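Morning F.,

Quick status update on the modeling queue. The single chain you submitted on Monday has been processed. Sequence for confirmation:
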Amino acid sequence: MASEIRPRALACALLALSLASPMAAAHKAHTHGVGDLDVAVDGGRISLALTVPAADVVGFEHAPRTDAQREAVASAEKLLRAQAELFALPVAARCRFLSADVTAPWSGDAGAADAEHSDFAARWEFDCAEPAQLAFIEVRIAAKLSGDLKLRATVLDERGQRRAELTRSRTRLALR
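Structure tokens below.
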């Protein structure tokens, strides 16, 4: 029947739409030391979206004012694009990186320069040839950023939705 939609496809589509919305980040509480990582798994496709306070990424939440601050922002953007530094997927899953999109809070939006709280946002996409082998993702984001960052991870896949907390020492996000 044409009106029937697979529940998994619908759930992943809804998550992808919510992650793409600039308003999605605004609905989550801005808490220093805490970031949000949303993970959608649909077959062999993995979509990850991160929102993290700028203070936890570069050490400040205002538009960069000095050369050192501008360099910190550039370095952070480079790091967040380096998916191999941030994630490890099971070799047996034969995953390939598709894309990364990183948005610094001060890029392209003059109003963000005056914001009281600023967040970095990043998205990554992977495609895995052997999705049955996707048992976990090693998430190294907290270890790569300064401080004691905790990531509130939300996974949405064919089994439903579940949450986990990731830290410098707790990096494995179970998928199976």
